[in-house]
Amino acid sequence: MFSSVSINGLGLRDKTLCLTFDDGPGETNGEGPGPKTLELARYLRQEKITACFFMTGVHLEKYPGIASEVSELGHRIGNHSFTHSKPFPEFFQSGGNIVSEIEMTDELIRQFNPDKNIYFRAPWGDWSEEVATELNNKINNGLNHIGPFHWEIGAMDWSFWQRGDTSENCADYYLKEIQEKYRGIVLMHDSTTDLAKARENNLTFETAKILIPRLKDLGYSFVALDEI
């Protein structure tokens, strides 16, 4: 069932992180900037880190093969709504069909993931008890939704890509926030659903390759979402 309040990672041990990535999957042509979901998933597997990729339905439809391989690499696939068009409380109050947003994305995930547990993160992390009640009352597709999951460390990587900033600066910013928080769920974006410029300039894969070795050198460890 959907929780009436968001789930966080404050119960994690000191220097323990859970990596999550939103708004994918995505891919780019060539070696330049742009979403590199599969390369990121492979790198994390190489580093023995299990992440959760919260994917949107519009990108799952566009890149079904990428999502399937990310799952085969051992990462968790989460539901991040279909369109990511509005925060759910606002969308629901304006008459939007939040049930369809979940169910359509569920069906795409089921094509390659037989697990009945579906991790969920709300668009923009916005949530309400009213939204939870509506979804719990209306969704009956045999799946067990776990969430919504929020985050402790969200250093807005998308804003770096929106302004054309570097992966080095983004990694420095994340490292500073992690050292301030010391533990928790980390939010990054392997793509963006509603910001074309940020999607085109995405350097999250490159940022992760800078950040993760630094964190390991500092004694940080990583857990999967289902260990929270």
In CATH terms, what is the architecture? Alpha-Beta Barrel
Instruction: State the share of residues found in helices, binned by percent.
Output: 40-55%
Termini, distance in Å? 17 Å
Largest β-sheet summary: 8 strands, parallel
Number of helices: 10
Look up the CATH topology. Answer: TIM Barrel
Sequence of secondary-structure elements: EEHEHHEHHEHEHHEHHE
Mean pLDDT: 96
Low-confidence stretches: none
Query: How much beta, percentage-wise?
Result: 15-25%
CATH superfamily: Glycoside hydrolase/deacetylase
- Derived structural class: alpha/beta
Output the CATH class name: Alpha Beta
Number of structurally distinct domains: 1
Give Rg in angstroms.
Answer: 17 Å
Q: What coarse outline follows from CA principal-axis ratios? A: globular
The strand count comes to: 8
